[in-house]
Amino acid sequence: MSSSLIPRFLLPRGLLHHTQKSPPAPLFIRHAATRTSPSKPRVLEKPAKFNPPSHPARLNKKTPKSFPGPPLSFQEMEAQKTKQYPHMMPPEGSFMHWFLTNKSIHVYITLTFLFSLATFTFLTNFTRTTPFSHLLPPTSDLFSHPFSFIHQYIEVFKLHTAHITAETQERRKRKIDDVQKRSEYRKAHGLDKDEGFGGWTAKSEAEVMGPALVVGEGQGEGRRGGGLDGEGEDKGVYSDWEGKRKPVRKWLGIW
Prior knowledge:
2% strand; single chain; mainly alpha
């Protein structure tokens, strides 16, 4: 009788191990492919159902609650408004909270500071550049005699503007005389044919300056005599577009 027909529990232990030897496991050797077929691309097997990933692709950007406990009561919220915390804004209803959050008072302080800087810069520049600085009143009179101090300061400023106006007129007159001399030189040497663009070098003083600008007294009045209305203009008077004669108004001694 073969041992395969005898029940296993009746067989001796040594005989059981001797007769039940498992055959040697076959060796599977997998060789790497030397080449792939271009006509058959690799295709992954389609899953039977959607398997979500174990973690989301994006982080949860929701802001966590700052206070995980129960909400505060009305009394606690009111107490927080009046409590002063270190390195924090003052509580509502206090003077510092009103001062720091009021927009109008900040605008007023900013404009006041800017105007103060502009006034200080203007006065410093005026006192250092004016040739009439010796006529300015001393600073001590500002508190002892404020009205006389301001009046004298205004008078010196008027002298300063008149001085600047005279220098500006003299400078313009020199430029016009230079243009006239160059024009006469070109005419004397026959160079007036190839003048510059627009023929500005051949313009006279009246054409360059216009009827509203007063240049000087001697030669300027003779040139102004041949104006549009044929009459000599007085000093400080000009004719507008309608032919009316009006006094010349100059701002800051320039125009």
